[in-house]
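Give me structure tokens for this 246-residue protein.
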Amino acid sequence: MKINKLIVCFLGLLIACSPRTEAEKIVDEAIEAHGGKLYESARIDFDFRNIHYQIFKSPNRYEYSREFSDSIGLVRDVLNNEGFLRTVNGTPIDTLTDERIGAFSRSVNSVAYFAFLPYGLNDPAVIKNYLGETELKSEPYHLIKVTFQKDGGGDDFDDEFLYWIHKETYFVDYMAYSYHTDGGGIRFREVSSAQTVGGIRFQNYLNYKPENKDASVEEMQALYEQGKLELLSEINLENIKVEMVK
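Here you go.
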């Protein structure tokens, strides 16, 4: 037993002392530029498309919620470490199918993921690769590709992301991603505006799609520069509030 414990400790030290890859260093800089450690203790409220969201994500725990009113009353969805719960007018709904729970969970998680970027790029299931440098609109960028491990990567572990991180500001100015749930597709996002609230940078986006939904994330910059992307929607967060919690 003592030998096994020594081996575990030694392996832990090796992992802790392993040098950070270029992709990991760049993402660390991006997280710092957007808010750094503040993310770990921030509870964030905002409105998105007439739905109110509250997001909290620490290294050990997360809780994402949304509230909206419809014909059946006040609907509240909560996604956290324990799972998903929907209430209507304060009453838990326990008749949801697994399919509906999955769809609602993905919807809540997607909004939280994009609102908290780039903080989530250091989650354990994230695999980061450095694709080199590029230039977009005469600005220099690092290109980081993100994929996910199947174990811990969620229902959408096979999604792919590409992030353009500015070489000087370390802001994430553009991103492209492919997804396979809910019919699948590919998107390209360009930052349209940004604001800093409570020390955290929040970004709004123009959301584009290509004609060919089977295009790769690596093709999206060329398609954008050639004007071959269609503006699909605008991603705007409103009434942002940040509260620091213990």
